[in-house]
Amino acid sequence: MEIHQLEYFLAICNYGSFSKAALELCVSQSSISQQIQKLEAEMGTRLFIREPRKVRLSPAGEEFRHYAQKIISDLENCADAMRQFKQWTADRIRIGAIATMAYLGFDRIIKDFLERYPAVSAEVEEATTDDLIHWLRESRIDAAFISAPTTNEQSVNFYPLVNDEVVALLPARHELANKPSIALKELANEKFLLAKSSTGFKRDMVQACQESGFNPNVVLNSNHEILRHFVEEEMGVSLMGRRIARLLCSPNTAIVSIHPPLTRVSGLAVPSKRSISPIAKQFRDFVINYKPRRKTPVASQ
Questions:
Q1: 3-state secondary structure of 139
Q2: pLDDT value at position 40?
């Protein structure tokens, strides 16, 4: 079975005539007749009932028409998808990311994506979750790694990737530093140091404190590295995901669990509209199905 045979078959179905189909397709009638005969021989049955002035489909032809239409439609869709693929493989993707991207492993996802699709280049911009959602709405970026939206954000589709336990990062000499866990209300009289880059997370932490019966005294907003230094200097305490805290922890700080537990959720956001760019769809599918590649161990000498 060949594609042009299916095209000839469908043309005859549409025009009810070999001659009209030949005229429409700009081929000779004898060529169409020969190809249909070959197709019928391959199928082992007559597809058309030939009458003096017209042809009509046989019962087998009626059934075959359904499959022929589907095959041609699938091929057209495939060709369109490949055209889009060709377009984005030579394109670039604009990715937004929260400041904790590297702590959460999102930088490795981007690296592996670019290694798999070497024709693609990437532009990565750092901002807060609120700004990144705004940029997605305006099509300034194609996709973004963000903290979970605090409201039902209709303009983006959010795919959770990392669930991280929220912990307290305390000075090592703090009176609560040696406890296995604390209630959030035990920090009611502390000065709080929070990451300014995580607006949604900061809102969540302030709300959690308020639900525990106090308004947190936030004296500093800065990036995580600076927060760690100020915690070491006993300027205050900080709340952050355990993954981040583990990377920042030093002999002068202590990580303490909080009960009841709080969770920081981070993931990928793409525009919710159906017509997102092909490259954004490809990146979304890659991220959702992402499995970190194991590093090849170095052979001993």
A1: coil
A2: 86
Separation between Cα atoms, residue 66 and residue 211, nearest integer Å = 62
Q: What span, in angstroms and rounded, lies between the C-alpha atoms of 209 and 214?
A: 6
Three-state secondary-structure class, residue 291: coil
Q: Domain 163-264 in CATH: superfamily?
A: Periplasmic binding protein-like II (3.40.190.10)
Structural domain boundaries in the chain: 3-89, 92-160+266-288, 163-264
Q: Helix or strand or coil: residue 32? A: helix
- Residues 155 and 133: their CA atoms lie apart, in Å, by 8
CATH class of 92-160+266-288: alpha beta
Domain 3-89 sits in CATH at 1.10.10.10
Q: What is the pTM of this model?
A: 0.65
Structure tokens at 83: 């055209």
For Cα atoms 76, 78, 84, give the angle at the middle one, nearest 5 degrees. Answer: 105
**Do the domains 3-89 and 92-160+266-288 sit in the same CATH topology, yes or no?**
no
Please, where are the H alpha helices in 104-216?
106-116, 129-137, 199-211
pLDDT tens digits for range 167-214: 999 999 999 999 999 999 999 999 999 987 666 788 889 999 999 999
Tokens 């959602």 sit at which residue? 133
Q: Cα–Cα distance between 32 and 21 in angstroms, integer?
A: 8
Question: How many whole angstroms separate alpha carbon 297 and alpha carbon 222?
Answer: 38
